[in-house]
Design goal:
eight-stranded mixed β-sheet, seven-stranded mixed β-sheet
Length: about 550
């Protein structure tokens, strides 16, 4: 029997049409039509955003004056709103291009489940990350401490089983390949994880961890920072990590966190994936995580409350400049089809650098040094999800050798034992040396092409996936996440892009950290507000 093939249902199907075998082509055509009609294509509002390239917006017809303005409602912008509130500042406004806040921590919902449209989990936090711990305590995600250890709300931790890998025609527990290896391959995995544990615990002469979160808390040890000059593949080769299963595993990890694989990503970033988190050994760094059906949109919803009554959505900012140490911002209201001018004492651009290059003068040279991998997400509603039952369905399900990164079972955290339909979200990043070409292809190819791409990838483990799919929503992210190519993390671009302008224009975004994870975006928002208040104190 083939993996995942349900012969009983197939036998029933063929028996039902046996008397009308001549109608088979018509039946198949109707079936294809139904699937096509249930395809939904979504994504960020890139069509409106692309108007920044050749702005032809109407002149402002109204004016707003505000002490603090936040541009961008992703995690950094929402975190900045929270920090302003914590500091006793309530007179601020947030502008957002989309009709919702959250950025890459957004979500969708159908009649069966919520599902993520981007980031979908938060690894267990480091004990030294006091700001993040405080936030998680406020939102009742951390419920207390016992014998010096954090206690989490169990319903927000991934239920068991957590992860599985489809490898050599069988599902196995965990994401690193375990079975059918040679002695040399097993030894390579052991040696690799021992090396990652060494880097996880190591500290530089300055007393800081070599690899930490947020990234800027890491040691400035030059011997470790030099890893940023190489690709992860070069570092693996230099350290005699050459067995293919290990290379494939590390490549998967890099694509999952950075969008680019070992051939393109910085070795420092690649090692940071394993060594940056301190709550467990590197070999089991992501065994348990915090997650929700809607993914990190849950965290965004906790931050959103700080912007209640202070948000203008569907507003595209198209010009930012300073005049006499005041910020002047122009934005287009896509609902009313008119522009507004906003005068602010301080503006926080919580927007990525590929956007900022169109808002500010003389930013294109800096922006060209920031690279963003494109992503494809597909949420499928299926009547069933049979496989060979070698290991049960998990929250995270990865298929070895696939083009994508596997899929999340969105109802995994549900307490209901039976689901009338299953909802899964498939992820694919496009790891290539020509990112702009991949981004163009993402938008140029039709929905039917990407539907076929997803089905072909999932069919490796689920041969009947297309027949069992009732609907599919394709979500395109042209600039899915910042990707730390060699030389970027400790080069000048990040520092230059983060410098305030004329004491009134400030910056906060995860791309300024170099790694696109929730913690970095969260800390960016806190840091920028603290920076503003520090500068304001000095000015006064």
């Amino acid at each position: 029997m083939k993996n995942g093939e349900n012969y009983n249902s197939r036998r029933t199907f063929f028996k039902g049409i046996a008397a009308a075998i001549l109608l088979a082509p018509l039946v198949q055509a109707c079936k294809e039509k139904v699937v096509t009609l249930l395809i939904k294509l979504t994504g960020t509002n890139h069509l409106l955003g692309h108007r920044l390239r050749s702005p032809d917006f109407p002149k402002p017809v109204s004016q707003i004056r505000i002490p603090y303005l936040i541009v961008g409602g992703g995690i950094s912008g929402l975190s900045a709103a929270r920090q302003l509130t914590k500091k006793g500042i309530s007179d601020f406004l947030l502008l957002e291009l989309e009709d919702h806040v959250g950025g890459n921590s957004s979500s969708g919902e159908n009649q069966y489940s919520k599902y993520p449209l981007g980031a979908h989990y938060l690894p267990l936090p480091n004990r030294e990350d006091a700001e993040l711990l405080r936030f998680l305590e406020e939102e009742k995600i951390i419920t207390g401490y016992q014998d010096g250890f954090l206690v989490f709300d169990e319903q927000q931790l991934t239920f068991s089983p957590h992860e599985r890998l489809f490898y050599k025609n069988s599902w196995q527990e965990g994401l690193e390949p375990k079975f059918g290896h040679s002695v040399a391959e097993n030894d390579a995995f052991k040696r690799f994880f021992a090396q990652m544990d060494f880097y996880q615990k190591g500290r530089g002469p300055d007393g800081k961890y070599w690899f930490d979160i947020p990234l800027d808390q890491s040691s400035s040890d030059a011997d470790i920072r030099r890893f940023d000059r190489w690709t992860m593949k070069q570092w693996l080769d230099q350290n005699q990590f050459t067995v293919q299963p290990l290379l494939d595993y590390v490549d998967y990890c890099c694509r999952d966190d950075f969008g680019l694989g070992i051939d393109y990503i910085s070795a420092w970033a690649g090692i940071h994936y394993f060594a940056g988190r301190k709550h467990n050994s590197a070999a089991h760094a992501n065994d348990n995580v915090l997650t929700w059906p809607e993914g990190n949109a849950r965290l965004a919803s906790h931050l959103k409350k700080y912007t209640h009554g202070k948000t203008l959505q569907n507003h595209l900012v198209y010009e930012v400049r300073s005049d006499n140490r005041k910020a002047i911002v122009k934005a287009f209201d896509d609902v009313r089809k008119q522009s507004v001018e906003i005068l602010a004492d301080k503006v926080i651009l919580a927007t990525p650098q590929f956007v900022n290059q169109y808002l500010l003068q003389n930013r294109k040279t800096i922006a060209r040094q920031f690279h963003y991998a494109p992503w494809l997400l597909a949420t499928l509603t299926v009547s069933d999800l049979p496989d060979n039952y070698s290991y049960p369905l998990c929250w995270d399900n990865v298929i070895y050798g696939a083009k994508g990164l596997g899929y999340i079972y969105d109802q995994h955290q549900s307490l209901a034992q039976l689901q009338p339909r299953k909802v899964i979200t498939y992820y694919a990043s496009f790891s290539t040396g020509d990112i702009p070409k991949s981004r163009r292809n993402l938008y140029l190819k039709k929905a039917d092409y990407w539907k076929r791409f997803v089905f072909d990838d999932l069919r490796r483990a689920h041969p009947d996936i297309e027949k069992l799919t009732e609907s599919i929503e394709l979500h395109l992210l042209g600039h899915g996440m910042i990707s730390a190519v060699p030389g970027f993390l400790f080069g000048q671009a990040r520092q230059l892009a983060a410098q305030p302008i004329d004491g009134c224009i400030y910056f906060a975004h995860s791309d300024l950290s170099g790694i696109s994870i929730f913690e970095e975006a969260f800390h960016q928002g806190i840091a920028v507000v603290n920076h503003i208040l520090h500068d304001t104190t000095l000015d006064s």
